[in-house]
Amino acid sequence: MKQLRSFMHMKSIIVFCVVAVSIPFIAKADLFDQLVIAIKAGDSKQVSQYFNKTIDFATPTLSDVYSKAQAEILLKDFFVSYPPKAFTIQHRGSSAQGTKYIIGKYDYDKGSLRVYILIKEQNGQQLIQELHFEKE
């Protein structure tokens, strides 16, 4: 009986460790999933919540480094001018330093654009450093 309790205790510890180690990976995947959903919906507020204080933002008509607030307004205008029909991730990658990126395809009524999103961790938070919508 004592061995059974010891075994159950050990099993609980192993399950806890597996869950604890998995949580950071699940959270990172959720950010990508949330960005896809928000971009497909044309939701500038949802996307911009992940912007860094300043962001390198580009569309077919503009390109510069903007404050988080400016970039949110410009993204909202972009979604009005280029309403989303679809957004798909074509490639994901990361560096040894923890930088992650997404390359995707953004479809709108008159064509499609290539999307590049660069994400870096700052103070334990994943933040968008660059967001580019470019002609293919």
Question: Which helices and strands occur, and which strands form pairs?
Answer:
Blueprint: H1 2-41, H2 44-48, E1 51-59, E2 62-67, H3 68-81, E3 84-94, E4 100-108, E5 111-122, E6 125-135
Parallel strand pairs: 1-6
Antiparallel strand pairs: 1-2, 3-4, 4-5, 5-6
Structural summary, described in words:
By secondary structure, the protein is α+β, with helices and mostly antiparallel strands. The protein is built from three helices and six strands. It has a single domain (2-135), classed as Nuclear Transport Factor 2, Chain: A (Roll), CATH 3.10.450.50. A hairpin with a 2-residue loop joins strand 4 (100-108) and strand 5.
> How are helices and strands ordered from N to C?
HHEEHEEEE
Number of domains as seen in the coordinates: 1
CATH topology: Nuclear Transport Factor 2, Chain: A
Q: Report strand %.
A: 35-45%
Mean pLDDT: 86
Provide the spatial order of strands within the biggest beta sheet.
2-1-6-5-4-3
The total beta strand count reads 6
- CATH hierarchy: architecture: Roll
General shape = globular
The profile of the biggest β sheet is: 6 strands, mixed
> For the CA atoms, what is the radius of gyration?
20 Å
Number of helices: 3
CATH class: Alpha Beta
Distance between the termini: 67 Å
Low-confidence stretches: 15-28
Helical fraction: 40-55%
Q: Strand pairing plus helix content: what structural class?
A: alpha+beta
